[in-house]
C-alpha cells in the first residue's frame, strides 16, 4: 500500500504560528486551524485571565465534549434509521 503524500503548511492559531503536516488537503487543515483559533478566542473572551496553556486545555476539553455529543447524536440517528427500516 502506497503511503499518501503529506501536505505541510503553516497556520496561525491564537497569535502563534504552527506547522501542520497531514494527508488531508491544505484547505481542510486551514479550516481545522481556523476553528481551533475561533474556539480559543471565544473562550478567552469569556475568561480573559486564562494563560495560553489553560486556554488550550479548556479548548480541547470543550472540543472533545462537542465531539462526544455529536457521536451520541449519530448513534441515535442510526438507531432511528434501523427502527424505521423495520
Written description of the protein model:
The protein has one domain (7-85). The longest helix has 34 residues, at 52-85. The chain has 86 residues and is α+β, with helices and mostly antiparallel strands. Helix 1 (26-46) packs across helix 2. It is built from 2 helices and 2 strands; from the N terminus they run ββαα. 64% of the residues lie in helices and 16% in strands. Strand 1 and strand 2 (16-22) form a beta hairpin. The termini are far apart. Strands 1-2 form a two-stranded antiparallel sheet.
Q: Can you give me a brief rundown of this structure?
A:
Keywords: Cell cycle, Cell division, Cytoplasm, Septation. The chain has 2 helices and 2 strands. With 86 residues, the protein is α+β, with helices and mostly antiparallel strands.
Percentage of residues in DSSP E strands: 15-25%
Q: Kindly report how far apart the N and C termini lie.
A: 40 Å
Principal-axes geometry comes out as: flat
**Integer count of domains:** 1
If strands are numbered along the chain, what order do they take across the biggest sheet? 1-2
Key terms for this structure?
86 residues, alpha+beta, two-stranded antiparallel sheet, 2 helices, flat
Give a topology summary.
Blueprint: E1 7-13, E2 16-22, H1 26-46, H2 52-85
Antiparallel strand pairs: 1-2
Helix pairs in contact: 1-2
Keywords: Cell cycle, Cell division, Cytoplasm, Septation
Protein name: Cell division protein ZapA
GO cellular component, one term: cell septum
